[in-house]
Amino acid sequence: MRTFSAVLLRLALGLSFLSAVADRFGWWGSFGQRNVAWGSFARFVAYTARLNWFLPQAMIPPLAVLATCVELLLGLLLVVGWQTRIAAACSGILLITFGLSMTAALGLEAPLSFSVFSAAGGSLLLATCSSFPYSVDELLGRAATLPEGGRRLA
């Protein structure tokens, strides 16, 4: 059960980040279509401005780009399982920050309905795992523990 849970959590978190990035570029469809939150990067920038109303307007586009790059990187790291503990911890911090911004701008119901705090808790729990089955981390760990004289694929 532990193996299944760790793999499921890692993939669910990673694919959720990648799905959000895909939505920002319209890869799930246009705004107004079923299950599309933004549908374009411009709409995501507007949403970023709404959540970060306390920041100067000039900071909003760079923040939207930064958030997108971070979510893309964390999503990829989690899906392949490389540097998983660090990626999971960073994901938790990012999601807590996002949830608090949502709460300040939209009220508590928004981050609860989108399970932002649940995902943050899952991320932080994943960061405490001692192993990451079916991951690059596991493969690299096996390679590092080969007996002397063993061959490595480098």
From TrEMBL:
It holds the Pfam family DoxX. It is found in: Membrane. Keywords: Membrane, Transmembrane, Transmembrane helix. InterPro entries: DoxX. The chain crosses the membrane at residues 59-79, 86-108. Its main location: membrane. It is a multi-pass membrane protein. This is DoxX family protein. It comes from Anaeromyxobacter oryzae. The lineage of its organism: Bacteria, Pseudomonadati, Myxococcota, Myxococcia, Myxococcales.
